[in-house]
Task: structure prediction
Amino acid sequence: MSADKNAISPTRAQDFPEWYQQVIRAADLAENSETRGCMVIKPWGYGIWELIQRQLDVRFKETGHQNAYFPLLIPLSYLEKEAEHAEGFATECAVVTHHRLEAVKDEATGKTRMIPTGELAEPYVIRPTSETIIGAAFARWVESYRDLPLLINQWANVMRWEMRPRMFLRTAEFLWQEGHTAHETAAEALDETRLMHGVYEEFLRDHLAIPVIPGEKTENERFPGADMTLTVEAMVQDKKAIQAGTSHYLGQNFSKAQNISFTGRDGTLQHAHTTSWGVSTRMIGTLIMAHSDDDGLVLPPRVATQQIVILPVSPKEETREAVFAACQDLAASLRKQFSHGDALRVHVDARDLNGGVKKWEWIKKGVPIRIEIGPRDLESGKVCVQRRDQPIAQKEFMTREEFVASAAATLDEIHGNLLARAREFRDANITACSSIEAFHAHWAGENPGWLCTPWAGTAEEEEQLSKQHKITIRCLPLDRVELPAHVTDALGSKCILTGKETSVRAIWGRSY
Result:
C-alpha cells in the first residue's frame, strides 16, 4: 500500500460511523459475536482494556477503595425495592426465568430441541448495574458509624439489552468497573462523588490523551435514583459527545429502600449516604473516535498494548541473522527503560512476512513508535524511527544509543501531541449561543458541534428542545472549568429561552 493511499475506507469525512467500524476491524480490536448485540474483544483490544483496568485500579486503591465481587444475577424483588432506579433500566433488562434445559426430539424433523423447564420461583435480572445487590450486602455489613465509610469497587461485566449496538460504544454486554460507597454524612458522600469524578477527568487526560469537560447532569439526564450525577464529556472527531464516565451521589434513596442503617454518634438510628461511579469499555470507543485517522487506530502510549514495535528488514538470507540479533538486542535495552513506572512494552515482529505488510499492520493497529532495522542500518549504526502521531511517510534516523535514551520522552511527546490536537479540535467546535434563534439555526447543520448557552429553563423546557433537535444538555460545566476564550467572550448572562439572568452554562450536543 502506498503512503498516499489511506488504509481505511471509507474515510472519516465520507462516512464516520462506517469508518469507525473499519478501524476496529483493521486494528483487529474486536468482532461481532453470534450473540446478538455482543462482541468478542480480541487480544489487541483486550490488552488496551487490561492497561486501563490496571492503571485505574492503582488510582482507586490509592484513594482507599478495595475490590470485591458480587453476583451476576439480581433477584427481581431487589429492583422492586427501588422503583425509580428500576424503571430507568426496565426496558434494558435481561431476565432469567428458568434453571434447567430438557432435550426434546421433534418427531417430524428428527432434530433435538432444548426446552427451558424448571421455572424459577423468583426471576433474576442479569445485572444492568449493582446498586441494589451491593446495597443488600452493605445493609448486612453496617451496624455502627464506626463501620463507615465502606469504599468498594467491582470489576465486572453487565448487560443492558441494546437495540442498536455499536462495538465498544453500545453493546448488550460490556465490561466496566462500578464503585459503590456508603458514608456517615452527606458531606462525606459528596466529597467522594467529586473525588472519583476528578479521578476520571485526570485519567482520561493523563492516560488516554482525551480532554473532557467535567460537569453536572441536569435532572432529566441524571442516573436513575440519584440526587446528583457528575459526568466527564468528550468530543470525538465527528463533533458528537460521548459520556466517558459518571459519578453519582445517591443521597439516602437506596439506603432507605435497602435499610443500610447504622447507630449514629448520638445513639439514633440513621441511614447511610451512598455513591456509585463507573467507567466501561466505552473508553476504548471514545479513544478510537478521538485520535484515529484514515490509516487506522492511533493509540496513546500509556494504554498501547505494545508501545514500540521493531521491524527487521532483511531480504537477503545472509544478513537476516545479524539483523534479527540487532533487533532483539535493541528490544532488550528498551525494556530496561521506564515510562510512568512501567517498563517499556516492546515487540520484535520476526514473522516471515513481507516488510510492507507488517509495516501497514502496525500502522493500522496504532502502535506509537515503529523501528525499522536493515543491513544498511547495521552498517551506519542507526535505526529508522517512525511515529504514529506524525505523517506515515515521515521518518527520522537516530543512533541506537540516542533512541534508547530518548524513547520514554518521545512517548510522552506523542501523548502531549495527541492531547493538544484533541483539545484544539474540541475548542474550535464549541460555539457560544445567546439567543433562541441562533440556537435553532445551529442544529440545522449535519455535524454542527457543541453549543454553550446561558440556561435557566425548566426540565420540561429542556426536554422539549432536546426532542425537537435530537440533542441533550451534555453537562452544566463546573465553575472551575475554563471554556475557550471565544466562547466565554461571546456568552451572555441571560437564558436563551426564558431571558432570566443566570450564571449557569449549559453544553448542548448530539451524542453516542
